[in-house]
Inverse folding.
């Protein structure tokens, strides 16, 4: 169940990233800050204090069984959601909110920042002898009103690299190992 929820959230996040990068955006619409509901703007200030929201998109979709589902423009079930891009010191993020200001999911990219102590300790226990990169990604998923953060990190040991996704309790969700020359 946890892995399927993580897979769904990661798929949504990747799809959103792909849509944001494409020149012909089928499902998204660029909007101005003034067109974003006040509830969403207040939630951004609360969830990401001291960050600058610099890009806004409207995305048609709906929440089904606690998970976000991307819809086409013609769907009658559309509820607007808002993709917000943020910047800060050593920090970039994208967050998806529903029209009431509830966080659906977020991807945060940190540069030169330490992982939370409990996560770093869990990684050290799982992979002794491996070194942590100082950059990491935090993926937050809100499902059924429960917010769950995951951390995607890069580990190195000699010629080997490993990309690891771990939850804040130290449970490994996925890993990909490769050798470098």
């Amino acid at each position: 169940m946890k892995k399927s929820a993580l897979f769904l959230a990661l798929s949504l996040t990747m799809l959103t990233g792909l849509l944001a990068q494409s020149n012909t955006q089928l499902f998204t619409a660029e909007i101005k800050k003034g067109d974003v509901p006040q509830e969403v703007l207040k939630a951004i200030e609360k969830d990401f204090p001291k960050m600058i929201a610099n890009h806004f998109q409207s995305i048609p979709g709906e929440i089904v069984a606690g998970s976000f589902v991307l819809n086409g423009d013609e769907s009658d079930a559309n509820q607007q959601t808002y993709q917000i891009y943020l910047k800060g010191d050593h920090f970039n993020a994208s967050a998806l909110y529903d029209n009431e200001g509830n966080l659906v999911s977020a991807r945060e990219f940190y540069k030169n920042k330490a992982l939370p102590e409990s996560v770093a300790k869990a990684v050290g226990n799982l992979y002794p002898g491996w070194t942590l990169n100082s950059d990491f990604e935090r993926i937050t998923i809100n499902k059924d009103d429960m917010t769950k953060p995951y951390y995607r990190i890069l580990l190195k040991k000699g010629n080997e690299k490993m990309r690891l996704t771990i939850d804040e309790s130290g449970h490994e969700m996925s890993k990909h190992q490769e050798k470098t020359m």
